[in-house]
Amino acid sequence: MNKVKPISIENRWDILYESYPEVYDAFVSVPKHPKIIDVLKDHFKFNDKIVLDIGSGSGDSTFQFSPLSKEVIGLEIEDNMRFIAEQKLKELKLNNVSFRKGTALEISLGDESVDMSLAITLPLFIESEIRTYINEAIRVTKKGGVIINVGIAPFCYGGDLAEVILGESKITEEDTEGVVDRIMRDEYGFSYFDFQSLWNYDSVEHLVSTYGFIFGSKAIDYIQKNNLKDITWTYRVHYLVK
Ligand SMILES: C[S@@+](CC[C@H](N)C(=O)[O-])C[C@H]1O[C@@H](n2cnc3c(N)ncnc32)[C@H](O)[C@@H]1O
Predict the structure, then answer these.
(1) Is residue 60 lining ligand 1, measured as CB closer than 6 Å?
(2) How far apart are the C-alpha atoms of 66 and 60, rounded to whole Å?
(3) Which residue in 39, 53, 100, 216 has its CB near the most CB atoms, within 10 A?
(4) Does 104 contact ligand 1 (Cβ within 6 A)?
């Protein structure tokens, strides 16, 4: 029997990845100003590099890196997300992209096998797991290569609707993004910079059925009351040269 689709999954990203991967894909497949790759390519050299995209999801990040790199390997734990990426790859016919099942916590690649280890909004919440992922990303990266982690900046969960979603009180405590920031900078010596990106949806309904579906009823009410059609994200890029 088919389950009835809820109006929102209220921030349950595990449910999103497993049961509604097509909603995730619709959420990210919109015009972005700038795209993450346009910012990264101004800071890092991709040419002739083997790039690992950790937590590649439905492929949005992986496909962005493809035109600039020698080879891109997408690593993704959730079969249903990876299935969408593989379907898209068949249509796009890119011969330098591949996807594999696997976890950031035990990367199925040899030591020093890639030039760049990248993760774009990889969701890890437990401190020990964040450290394990960083150690693994460093292990598989060649000497002189770079480890790059692009996450949402601290206190910016949900983009410019952070306060609407979390409430004012919650955004004064250290959040998940803050934990990642502290570990990367204080324990591993990563450098960082922030940037903003505007994501355009073509209608209020499109924003509600993607972003609203994920971020919950408070977000949906706000979007509808204010006739919103876009979201601005603040990202934090952590990077470390090995
Ligand atoms: C927010 S999505 C980002 C997807 C993609 N990087 C993008 O920019 O659209 C996070 C992805 O990381 C995957 N993921 C979560 N934990 C993981 C882990 N331990 N190892 C590998 N992938 C993981 C999720 O299944 C999901 O597809």
Answers:
(1) yes
(2) 10
(3) 53
(4) yes
Does the residue 157 lie in any domain? yes
Domain hosting 102: range is: 13-199+234-241
Q: Which amino acid is at 240?
A: L
Whether residue 8 is contained in a domain is answered as no
Q: What does the pLDDT look like over 153-163, one tens digit per residue?
A: 998 999 999 99
- Summarize the confidence of residues 71-89 as an average pLDDT: 98
Using most ligand atoms within 8 A of CB, pick from 77, 131, 150 the residue to mutate for ligand 1: 77
Nearest-CA residue for atom 4 of ligand 1 = 57
Q: Is position 76 within any domain?
A: yes
CATH number at residue 181: 3.40.50.150
Predicted local confidence at residue 169, as pLDDT: 60
- Write down the pTM of the prediction: 0.96
Q: Which residues of 130-147 are buried (b: 16+ CB within 10 A; e: fewer)?
A: bebbbebbbbbbbeebbb
Helix runs in the chain, H state only: 13-19, 21-28, 36-43, 60-65, 79-92, 127-140, 162-166, 176-182, 204-207, 213-215, 217-226
